[in-house]
Design brief:
Helix content is about 75%, strand content about 0%. The N and C termini lie far apart (about 55 Å). Helix 5 (about 85-110) packs across helix 8. The protein is globular. It is built from 18 helices and no strands. With about 400 residues, it is mainly alpha-helical.
Length: about 400
């Protein structure tokens, strides 16, 4: 069998498993489809089977993630997102770096890692994923404002995390420590990188998306619109990431928001635009389906049990640290909001922080020779599995306990 034929068999095998799962949970609206997919992948790994399709950082970041992000952002309600922009900005710009510092400091004791390694792990594992959040919230009828807030935070903090991750790796390659970053000048440099690399990528995406939106409104041919959206989704990522040294993830976020989520587009969407948007929704579903199964199948069971203590402690600490940042930051921001976020919604925000796609991509991109790389990979995959399976499967119960879900209002 040729390599291409073997790859096609693997992809079809993933879709066959996904179809089985979909039929299994279709009448069980309290079971998250994404969680079961990952669990099926773990079962495949335990059974000693494998797919002829290996996960790599480039495959996730350059192929899977742009499709997931672009498809998700084009359907977001920008007006509602803008009304919650101050909260999302605080959670991204203040909350994520603060959480990295807290978990990095605790990690030196809890995991026995040097400070640099602990900070790298915190940066890798803490960003929440739009793929995981969007897929699970699509399965459940969650309050629109809460869903937009969590999705918005997820879409933005991935780009910020990648910038911090790159800065820490640069410190490792230059001196092997974070001493230079702990100085006032080092902290200013990190803030500058976030502003230039992250903010620049977002601004670039906004410009590309706005121009593409203006072109799209003059097109009637469905295939032309589809080709334009593909160019924007992947072109903005490549232009920002590989040519301008900016955040490709945030470029896709900006492009998707400005291209697809204008009020006039949503309320006066042409038939062709609607069909193209449905195609992107379908593409996102297919991509996440493959991705979740492969993440589960990549788990090395023997290594997982060998480092079970590290995995368990990391999974608990990630939730604790997220709670330690979400509650005070949201409560503090409530004073500036016309409609404060109630405490029971904050509970959902803490529990809804799922850590799968971007953490897996970042840990796979660690350079050769990075200290404790084996432990870090096992911990990240372990937390990713626990996050989406345990938190995902219990999400309907959490929503029910706090009075949200099918009958929820704004």
């Amino acid at each position: 069998m040729s390599e291409l034929a073997s790859l096609l068999v693997s992809v079809l095998g993933v879709f066959a498993l996904a179809l089985f799962v979909r039929l299994l949970v279709r009448d069980r609206d309290r079971v998250a489809f994404a969680s079961v997919l990952v669990l099926i992948g773990v079962i495949v790994s335990v059974a000693g089977l494998s797919f002829d399709l290996n996960l790599t950082a480039d495959l996730i970041l350059m192929v899977f993630l742009p499709a997931i992000i672009f498809g998700g952002t084009t359907t977001l309600d920008v007006q509602r997102l803008w009304r919650n922009a101050s909260l999302i900005a605080v959670l991204t710009i203040v909350g994520l770096p603060l959480a990295v510092l807290i978990l990095g400091g605790i990690g030196t004791v809890a995991f026995g890692f040097p400070l640099l390694v602990a900070l790298v792990f915190a940066t890798i594992i803490l960003p929440t994923d739009p793929a995981a959040v969007i897929s699970i919230f699509d399965e459940l009828d969650v309050s629109e404002r809460l869903a937009v807030t969590i999705e918005g935070e997820s879409l933005l903090n991935d780009g910020v995390a990648v910038v911090i991750f790159s800065t820490l790796l640069a410190a490792f390659e230059s001196s092997g420590s974070v001493t230079a970053l702990a100085t006032p000048g080092g902290l200013v440099a990190i803030a500058g990188d976030i502003a230039v690399v992250g903010g620049g990528g977002l601004a670039l995406g906004v410009v590309v998306g706005y121009l593409a939106h203006a072109v799209m409104r003059r097109l009637e041919d469905e295939m032309s619109i589809l080709l334009l959206t593909v160019l924007v989704a992947y072109g903005s990522f490549l232009l920002a990431e590989h040519y301008l040294g900016m955040s490709g993830i945030l470029a896709v976020v900006g492009a998707g928001l400005l291209m697809g989520a204008h009020e006039e587009t949503h309320h006066k969407m042409s038939t062709s635009e609607y069909h193209v948007q449905e195609l992107w929704t379908t593409a996102g579903f297919l991509v996440t389906t493959v991705l979740y199964v492969l993440i589960g199948a990549e788990v090395r069971v023997s290594a997982f049990f060998q480092h079970a203590g590290l995995v368990a402690s990391a999974a608990v600490l990630v939730v604790v640290v997220r709670a330690a940042t979400i509650y005070p930051l949201v409560s503090g921001t409530n004073s500036t909001l016309s409609r404060p976020v109630p405490l029971y919604c904050q509970h959902v925000m803490v529990w809804g922080g799922l850590h799968t796609v971007v953490p897996v991509a970042l840990v796979l991109s660690l350079p050769d020779g990075f200290p404790f790389s084996e432990e870090l990979q096992v911990m990240v995959f372990g937390v990713a599995i626990i996050s989406i399976v345990v938190q995902g499967l219990l999400m309907p119960e959490v929503l029910s306990r706090v009075g949200l879900g099918e009958s929820s209002t704004e």
